[in-house]
What does this fold into?
Amino acid sequence: MIAIIDYGMGNLRSVEKGLEKVGVQVKVTSEPEIISKARGIVLPGVGAFAKCLNNLKKRGLISLLKNLIFSNKPFLGICLGFQLLFEESEENGLTKGLGIIKGKVVRLPSFVKVPHMGWNQIKVIKKIPIFTDIPNSSFFYFAHSYYGKTQSDKVVAAKTQYGIEFPSSVCQDNLIGVQFHPEKSSYFGLKLLENFGRMCR
Amino acid sequence: MLAKRIIPCLDVDKGRVVKGVKFVELKDAGDPVGLAFFYDQEGADEIVFLDITASAEKRGTMVEVAWKTAEKVFIPYTVGGGIRTIQDIRKLLKAGADKISLNTAAVKNPLLVKKAAQRFGRQSIVVAIDAKKRGFQKWEVYINGGRTPTGIDAVEWAKKVESLGAGEILLTSMDRDGTRDGYDIPLTRAVTKEINLPVIASGGAGKLEHFLEVIIEAAADALLAASLFHYGELKIKDVKDYLKKENIPVRD
It folds into this structure.
């Protein structure tokens, strides 16, 4: 079973249905016991950074999530659920994040239309298992105004071009973050979720 | 490269698609979920459901549509029509919609746009603008499904909703809607020039060249069409193949 963390933010139902579609057993939950037992964790998230972080805090989930990440359990952060893993975000003033990925969440440049909305390509940098059977330059669905700027290039698993080139996926041991929405990215998005499901077996 | 999006729009009345899709061999051509699934398979980049239900008490049906769509459709979808409160928005997003679109309610209560963007993120808040020509480079905003003029200038309104926190503009030309004469280039350009948000052009698509022209001449980010696709005159793939040949980035 994979746990989708429910902390009152974002489109959990789409992630749940996407994983179910590819045959993965999922549980949408905020129960520490269930989360601890899961074979993999998905942290989704839509909305504002500070509010998301506060909601995690209120539910007492921060140290649990950190422990699970350090325990080597497969962990997938999606969109804001990915951004929360950074040290800090400049969205609406500076807010501290979980600090697991070294770097900062910053605004997309103002010479492009913001939000970055729609289907864009990813350039796969690291052929990690989650990108199995996903060709380079495949399109994924993005909807965001900020992006995670990593301190080191070494953790970047995929990049995307939008005015600048930004990390659209990060891989750090068992932790994977994606800025796009696999649950909304049709065939290759579902493939990515299927790959994640396989990693959790 | 960010792809230009092709978006079919489904008009839904009391939970059923109207102006139904004529060509599809579906068991039930009035089922919004089945049609959305069909368009996902056809290569649509997004779906817009527009609720045209007149009676307020029957409007709850859209939440159910959004809910069922999430089980089958794995591309983004937007729900618009009759949305008035933060509660309405919350229910639709929770059911699985990616975005909601505000039109009349945004004009009557601009603060709703701001509150909704703060609460749900600006990427999930679309403002739909129905505009009608009112002289040289002037367009007026209409509400209540195009029945009520507001006296508001469409370009000024687009700028205002951008500052309030809208994440996207769905811009419909009332002059072109249903004509098949092509998208309204001057209107679309007037809006894309003034704001820094993605703009979906709507109203008037009749042939392949229309899609290209509104991208090249008016910098539209996405193109919406309804009957053209529903009647099978053009397939989504025809539009994408054509745009690709013209060097416009589209998702294969």
